[in-house]
Amino acid sequence: MTAQEPQHAHNDSLESVATEVRGCVRCALSQTRTQAVPGEGPADAEILFIGEGPGLNEDRTGRPFVGAAGQFLDELLAQAGLQRSAVFITNVVKCRPPENRDPEPGEIAACAGYLDRQIALLQPKLIVTLGRFSMAKYFPGESISRIHGKLRNVGGQLVLPMFHPAAGLRRPETRTALMQDFKQIPLALAAARKQQVPPPEKQPEDEPPPQQMTLF
Ligand code: URA
Ligand code: SF4
Questions:
Q1: Which of 45, 63, 190, 191 is at a distance of 20 to 30 A from 199, taking alpha carbons?
Q2: pTM of the model
Q3: 14-193: CATH superfamily
């Protein structure tokens, strides 16, 4: 290990991230939370969903997306044919902002190390961002109305930005967009799986590349 690398780089785990989050006092949200919400899901999850921050019910239970927005997320996952138990769900900030206000840039920055470690540990094939704050991690300055539902490759990571489910509860148009966008997840995941298949060791130049043999 080199001097610049953080201590946890080689021996980190999702459990140790969660333990650190539960005791974290890196920002002022630690003073008003009931419980921190590290996130949950299996270590081999192929898809990582990143929300904004815990709300009232999440703060009470310590689990992500268990309130009204969470119930809608469950519906969206089900209609996309995804099992909640197979995906990892977390947030940009792990502690509830008072009155569910927007997380502040300083809070997001203070918490970013935990999210980055979760991403490094999971190495998800696909990241689905829910709402503006997780979108901004990958697409700073972009508008969610413009890019929602569009799969993008960000430095080798496939990211699919979505509206926040809570916004879908407020606006029927956003609800419709979320339903449409979530239906793309299985296709995006299939694309991600293909992309991560290592290329064949030898690719003879006189043979046609495989894509010329497909029918579409
Ligand atoms: N909204 C979020 O962004 N995250 C949660 O965990 C719950 C509601
Ligand atoms: Fe720590 Fe993140 Fe909670 Fe702030 S929001 S106290 S940085 S876990």
A1: 45
A2: 0.88
A3: Uracil-DNA glycosylase-like domain (3.40.470.10)
